[in-house]
Amino acid sequence: MNDDVVSAASTSPEELPGAALDIAPLLLVPVVAIAMLPLVGSFPAWITLTVAGLAMGMMIFIMASGLTLVFGLMDVLNFGHGAFVAVGAYAATLVLLPLSDWTSADSLALNLSAVALAIVAAMVATGIVGWVFERLIIRPVYGQHLRQILITMGGAIVIEQLLSVIWGPDQIPLPLPQGLRGAIVMGDVAIEKYRLLAVAVGVAVFAVMFLVLNRTRIGLLIRAGVENGPMVEALGYRIRRLFVGVFVAGSALAGLGGVLWGLYREMLTASMGGEIVVMVFIVIIIGGLGSVGGCFLGALLTALVANYAGFLVPKLALASDILLMVGILLWRPAGLYAVARR
Amino acid sequence: MLRTMLSDDPPRSRLLAALLIVILVSLAIAPFVASGARALNTAATICVFIVLVASYDLLLGYTGIVSFAHTMFYGIGAYGVGLALATMGPSWWAVFAGLATALLVALVLALAIGLLSLRVRALFFAMITLAVASAFSVLASQLSDFTGGEDGKTFAVPRLLTPAYRLLEADILGRGIDGRLITYYLIFFCSIGLFLLLLRVVNSHFGRVLLAIRENDFRAEALGYRTVVYRTLANCIAALVATLAGALMALWLRYVGPKTFLSFEVMTDILLIVVIGGMGRMYGAVVGATLFILAQNYLQSGMARASDALSAAPFLAKALHPDRWMLWMGLLFIACVYFVPTGIVGKLRGTGK
Question: What is residue A1's predicted lDDT score, i.e. its pLDDT?
Answer without folding.
Answer: 41
